[in-house]
Amino acid sequence: MTETVRPPRFGVNYTPSRGWFHHWLDFEPDEVRADLDSIAALGLDHLRVFPLWPLFQPNRTLIRPRAVEQLVALADAAAERGLDVAVDGLQGHLSSFDFLPAWTTTWHRRNLFTDPEVIDGQRAYLRTLAAALADRPNFIGMTVGNEIDQFSGHPHPDPDRITPAQAEAWLHRMLTACEEGAPGRLHLHAAYDAAWYRDGHPFTPAHAARIGTATAVHSWVFNGTAQRHGPEAAATGQHAAYLIELSKAWADDPHRPVWLQEVGAPAPHIPAGRAAAFARTTVANALDCPDLWGITWWCSHDVDRALADFPELEYGLGLLTNARETKPAGAAVAALAAEVRAEWTPPPVRTTGLVLDLPDDAPDRSVCAPGGSYFEAFMRMAATGARPAAVLAGRATDAAHLAARGITELVTVDQLR
Question: Which of 227, 146, 240 is nearest to 196 (CA)?
Answer without folding.
Answer: 240
